[in-house]
Design brief:
This protein has 313 residues and is an alpha+beta fold. The protein is 43% helix and 18% strand. A five-stranded antiparallel beta sheet has the order 1-2-3-5-4, covered by helices on one side. Strands 6-9 form a two-stranded antiparallel ribbon. A two-stranded antiparallel sheet has the order 7-8. A hairpin with a 3-residue loop joins strand 1 and strand 2. The longest helix has 27 residues. The chain starts with 10 loop residues before the first helix and ends in a 7-residue tail after the last helix.
Length: 313
């Protein structure tokens, strides 16, 4: 596996792309996030602000699947940032053989979670969980036990060795495998519902963004991920926030008894999945102290959860 994909969007790239849209002339742009998977820019034009996204590792087919989902979400009134069509009615442009799309730019803040926000997220993820399923949405989750087992095989030859993390990851993968193999309700999952992928205004959810890793998977995975995103303070789970998130989720979709029994393990599984993501992208082959610290935080979460009895209303 190679290192980070390095791509830089230039002002000229943005100006050339804007020529295909009827959204005014370029004024300025600023980089609002630069990650392994994509680059996002706030572009200001004479008609307002636009979100400009470059997909760094996603195939065009994958981006097209995301656009199909966006269409379904728009029909259901789901709060997200919707893509903008160019003058020909197309949504995908190409820059340096990478897909890019323009979307609505939604003003707001990435939140510090509280009880109101946890409830808003619970209700939104519940709404996503009951979205009617189209066969075209049925793509597998990037985070899976199979992928965890595959990356374990890479550990001995990785450029950067993290023995404590590797040992922990192997043990925890084996431990979780039994719990997440049971048949549970499935549907569309966002897969990464953390504060930096949401926009709030006065405790009101304005949008859940970044659906590029959506998948057809066990719905409990998204609930576990959302709890990781919105129910922790100082890396300790907050039961009051979790209660509110689950209550609002269940106002849309009730959990069955098996889901309630397995939820603590899916909270662990979501944290484990984030560790997998950081190892895959790209701690095995690149130094990144921020990512390393995040992995250690997720490891500590799981260790704490294992010794804690989770009870909710």
């Amino acid at each position: 596996m190679s290192g980070h994909v390095e791509i830089t969007i230039t002002e000229l790239d943005i100006k050339k792309t804007l020529l295909h849209y009827n959204y005014g002339s370029y004024i300025s742009h600023e980089n609002i996030s630069f990650g392994y998977a994509n680059e996002n820019f706030k572009v200001t034009t004479t008609t307002g602000n636009i979100l400009f996204r470059l997909y760094k590792i996603q195939s065009e087919d994958s981006v097209r699947q995301e656009l199909l989902l966006m269409n379904a979400l728009q029909n259901s009134g789901f709060p997200t940032a919707y893509p903008l069509a160019d003058n020909s009615g197309a949504y995908i442009r190409s820059i340096n053989n990478h897909s890019c799309i323009l979307s609505e730019f939604i003003e707001g803040i990435h939140p510090i979670p509280n009880q109101y926000m946890a409830g808003e997220i619970g209700r939104a993820i519940g709404t996503l969980s009951v979205l009617p399923i189209n066969e075209k949405y049925k793509r597998p989750n990037y985070i899976s036990i199979e992928h965890c087992l595959t990356i374990i095989q890479e550990f001995p030859k990785a450029k950067y060795q993290h023995p404590e993390i590797f040992d922990y990851f192997k043990v925890q993968t084996t431990f979780l495998k039994n719990y997440i193999s049971e048949e549970l309700p499935m549907g569309i999952v966002h897969g990464d519902c953390f504060p930096d992928n949401t926009i709030f205004n006065d405790n009101k959810l304005i949008a859940i963004i970044d659906f590029e890793d959506f998948a057809f998977d066990t719905l409990l995975f998204d609930l576990g991920m959302s709890i990781n995103g919105f129910c922790y303070k100082d890396n300790m789970i907050q039961i009051d926030l979790m209660n509110e998130l689950i209550k609002e989720y269940e106002s849309v979709r009730k959990l069955n008894n098996k889901e309630k029994e397995l939820l603590p393990y899916y909270i662990q599984w979501a944290a484990h999945g984030m560790i997998y993501w950081h190892l895959r992208n790209n701690l095995l082959y690149a130094k990144n102290q921020i990512q390393l610290k995040r992995v250690e935080e997720f490891m500590n979460r799981v260790k704490t959860l294992k010794g804690k009895s989770l009870k909710w209303n």
